[in-house]
Specification:
Oligomer: heterotrimer
Family (chain C): Belongs to the CPA3 antiporters (TC 2.A.63) subunit C family.
Radius of gyration of chain A: 21 Å
Helix content of chain C: over 70%
Helix content of chain A: over 70%
Number of strands of chain C: 0
CATH topology of chain C: Helix Hairpins
Order of helices and strands of chain C: HHH
InterPro entries (chain C): CPA3_antiporter_subunitC, NUOK/Mnh_C1-like
Subcellular location (chain C): Cell membrane
GO cellular component, one term (chain C): plasma membrane
Largest interface: A-B, 48 and 43 residues
Shape of chain A: globular
Chains: A mainly alpha, B mainly alpha, C mainly alpha
Strand content of chain C: under 5%
Largest sheet of chain A: 2 strands, antiparallel
Order of helices and strands of chain A: HHEEHHHHHHHHHHHHHHHHHH
Shape of chain C: elongated
Strand content of chain A: under 5%
Number of helices of chain A: 20
Keywords (chain C): Cell membrane, Membrane, Transmembrane, Transmembrane helix
Amino acid sequence: MSFDTWLPAAIVLSSMIPGMLIFLLREESHRLRTLLNMTGALVKVGLVIWMIGGVYDGQNYETRWTLAPGLDLVLRADALSVLFVALSTLLWLVTTIYAIGYLEHSPNRSRFFGFFSVCVSATVGIALSGNLLTFVIFYEILTLATYPLVAHRGTPDAAHGAKVYLAYTMGGGALLLVGAIWLQALVGPVEFTQGGILGVSPEEIRVELILIFFVLLGGLGVKAALVPLHGWLPQAMVAPAPVSALLHAVAVVKAGAFGIVRVVYDVYGVEFAYANGLLLALGILASVTIIYGSLMALTQDSLKKRLAYSTVSQVSYIALGTSIFGPIATIGGVVHLVHQGLMKITLFFCAGNYAETLGVNKVSEMDGVGRRMPWTSLAFTVGALGMIGVPPVAGFVSKWYLGLGAADAGSNWVIAVLIASSLLNAAYFLPILHRAWFRPAPKQWPQEHRHPGRFEIAGALLWPPVITAALALSAGLFAAAPFTPLEWASLIAEREYGR
Amino acid sequence: MMIDALPLAVTLPLIGAFAVTVSPLHARGLGLMAAVLTAASALSVTAAVWSDGVLRADLGGWGVPLGIALEADGLSAAFLAMANVVALAVSVYAGGYFKQESARHFWPLWLLLWSALNGLFLAADLFNLYVTLELLGISAAALGALTGTREAVAANLRYLLVGLLGSMSYLLGVALIYAAYGVLDIGLVAEAIEPGPVAWTAMTLMIGGLILKAALFPMHFWLPPAHANAPAPVSAALSALVVKAAFYLALRLWLDVFAPVLNEAAANLLGILGAAAVVWGSWRALRAERLKLLAAYSTVAQMGYLFIAFPLLAATPPGLARDNLLAAVVLLALTHGFAKAGFFLAAGMVQKTAGHDRIDDLGGAAQALPAATFAIGLAGVALIGLPPSGTFLAKWVMLEQAMILGLWWWLIVMMVGTLLAAAYIFRVLSRAFNREPTPYRFVNDARTELPALLLGLIATFGLGIAAQPLWVLLEQGAFG
Amino acid sequence: MTGQVLYAQLLYGGSGILLVLLGLWSFLVHGPLLRKLIAINLMGAGVFHILVAIGYRGIDTPPDPVPHALVLTGIVVAVSATALALAFGKRLDQDDD
């Protein structure tokens, strides 16, 4: 029992334990709660840095706990899981700071931050899952932990949004469970293995395996918001801004997309999936989602809803990259897991800031916000440009690799999808930027709260978007430097294809 | 020393019942003392089975056939441990729940029920099982009517009569067995029994009587009113333990006595009834207006899951896979015991605070009681069968086995039940999110909230993450 | 000898089965509590008859004690259950007034 065997579990527990303690706190214990939150977040960052170094050097970290004969809870660090762990750990730290600032003076914070921490523990558990059973366990815990966050405000809207969210995710969870059990009944315990485990499966279960793939995809597609399973995402926008940030960038949709990557690469194996037409089906689904999400985003006046549909569209780049056979597209898809997270969380933080400071919730109310809130708007601009794919922001790198990969694989239609979606991205983001910077501000904002300090808004709300925007920018600018998301994604692709 | 714990687990609560009857002024203190001692002796039985294997005690030195013999193997030790932990939690809760007057009525009956329960898990012959079964039914009905309201009395009268019918049927089966083989000891009957019309009729009568008591669809009609109208701690014991005891006995007979007589048709019939119970019970729970009625219908559904085990067990050849499956079934029963008891205890707390238990109007009460709401949430996770609860593991093993056998329709039934359960549990939990800010203190009344929370934690975290010992315990004898 | 035993057993056992069936029919068909209670007791009497018949080993041989022990215990249990049911019934009647 060395430290190495406990490191993955420790990373999960570093937020789980503070979360449990926070539940027990009295509502008034603000300082203690903040202390617990920050300690958990920082300890997790430290542990993850340790793990990154180890995995880079080829070190094996595995926690294995037998639940019942043949059913093991396995937490294991490989290149792909570390990428997702690092993303969620970093963004959790930032989101925690933001949430502390955002929820100041609002009720029921012990409950909120308790579930907030459990939610991140579940995400990290998903990232580190070493087999399908463990993945299912944390996937469901994530559903359980996010429901209270969506319902948090207690308004009829929130109740309705939470109900829709629950109906979708429970249904998806049930599908995933069916698929996982079915698969395990056929081939035994499903350990995530580089290159997949089904390449050597007997011919006579092939049809069943293909069916199972679609059952699993149905389960994962709900969280990944693949059309037509995306209906919950715009509804869940009623949640407080930090929760939206978490749902869209760190936890929920990412868990779905990550699951798709896992199932394709480490369960089915990309060759098996390619040979049986599974990749093509996934690619078509992803493409439809990308175009549909963008078209819907165009028609939304509510800023958060526009961002939500943008998420529907953008997350499917990950699935799209997975669906193209070849290492270059894989890099594009996997790296977008991180890039989309950085950009989208920035946008949601900014949307929260506009709503908090000016009462601005609609795109049509955003005239002149650039002058009024320059820092927030700057961050928003970086995020929006990145989403469109303007160099040198990170989004450009993702799209570049996706395009190259598609060309490499001879899938010209994918390039068409990329171009169309980029045009659509521009069509729904550029008008916002135009309004923000080039239109005169109205005489009166919908609901203005003047912040007395030096900046437009409290530091806890300002710095998180500025930092994530800077990260999104540098992930693009310095893409070729060591330990960037791109480098790490290349490592993953190399290990997947270069066996 | 360890052998002595066997009779103690049965006699201690009986002595306690006597003591509280003689000295009603000290009912609570004496009752709690008896509760702690009983639970300790029962748990020491489980520990002894765990370390030393099957235990047997022939009371008063009388051997078979006249003496009263007690026996504990892995299966009974597992149920015994669950029942006694739950009963202890219920006792602590009841200590705070019942005031002087009702406490005087509660404790003697409760300890009597407890004694019958432990006796049922430990009895080694078919007739003593009948006696404990009857005692259990009578004390349960009396406890259920403790509130004295018209609905409660009427519901429990019906429960009593149905229970009597079930026991009569069981007794008739016992008479047949004795007529045919001249023995009553479970082990001896198992050796003697042969397939034939007598064994068949006896099995039908005995298992038929037991499914009436276990409230298997469509014989569940008596359960919801009886369980929903009882005082909260009694509802907890009825739903978590009493129906579970009938299931335990059915399983025990199925495995140990009637093993050579079984056929798949009977197993499938039980499974189909179970499936109907899952769907119907869950649906009615979803439509229930009152929290306790919801919990009671949920019990109907959960008993259904347990009976789906029979066709799976029948279709699985003896061996590792079957042992594994059986352990999963037991895990499911135990988890439900903890979860349902926790749910009822917490629901009682909410009901007491709100003054009613109409789900749609619960709002503030649920939000003001974080510990109770958490207990409902944790128990709910286990009732739905989500991870990390013991139910999740159990369902996984059962469904995987069903798929291996090619019996995929059980998977559909169980998933439908799971989704319906999610719907009715979250219908309750969604009431805990309200606009009004409430002064947030996690625990408001430790004596009643902590037992509920603890049971919820065992169901969801304890049995979900650390269920491995159950597999070891069940290797002791139960698999013959 | 054995013929006589068998005859007695058949007579008692057969009437026991008849009682059980009568009781069951009455239990299922009749609504009022008292009739249900009597029906249940009738069934019980039938089961006890069967048990007594099983224990019978002829006029000269002492009967098998085991079924008799069962019957005695069974009667005690049945009486207490009946008492409780009657108490419940009384409570319901009082409420009606």
